[in-house]
Amino acid sequence: MEYNWKKIEEDVQQHRSEIIDRLVDFSLNDVLLFWSSEESLQKEQEKKWMPIIQWVDENVNAKFKATTGIDVTPTSTETSQELRNYINQFSDKELTAFYMAALNMRSVLLALALVKGRINATTAFELSELEELYQVRKWGKEPEAEARRKSLKASISDVEKYLKQ
Question: How many domains does the chain divide into?
């Protein structure tokens, strides 16, 4: 999918504070905070997701907590405010990339790591699809899901390219 980055950036400039508020709220439902109860997958999540969560906590001065249930783990008001303050420092270009990455990956935490250069687009994709890729290894590929993942990977790569322009 090709994005009209100029148009998206204009929208982000115009609605900056609303977008930041939405992203902070969205962080409560971040895919990296919902771990499987299946032991082998949970070990993989801990190995691959925990370093991102810790990196965000250290850089944002936050305390994000993972859960194995379906209930959202309460995030402190301080964590939400620290995240808001951190995002507020982004340039319009960074915020535009961050917004699009977070929406695509269902993860504010991965989007932060991508925008700040902690991970690249390939790693961001793999981490955002960790559970699904685990299921593919276990049960095999499904053509429709494979097409969706290919599109997602391209979208995340587009975000990375936009950041480097």
Answer: 1
Q: Distance (Å, rounded) from C-alpha 25 to C-alpha 153?
A: 25
Q: What is the DSSP string of 88-152?
A: HTS-HHHHHHHHHHHHHHT-HHHHHHHHTTSS-HHHHHHHHTHHHHHHHHHH---HHHHHHHHHH
What residue numbers bound the domain in which 73 lies?
5-164
CA–CA dist 122, 8 (Å, integer): 23
Task: Report the CATH number at residue 75.
Answer: 1.10.3580.10
| CB-CB neighbours of 158 under 10 Å | 19
Identify the CA nearest to 30 among candidates 8, 52, 10, 47: 52
Q: Tens of pLDDT along 101-158?
A: 999 999 999 999 999 999 999 999 999 999 999 999 989 999 999 999 999 999 999 9
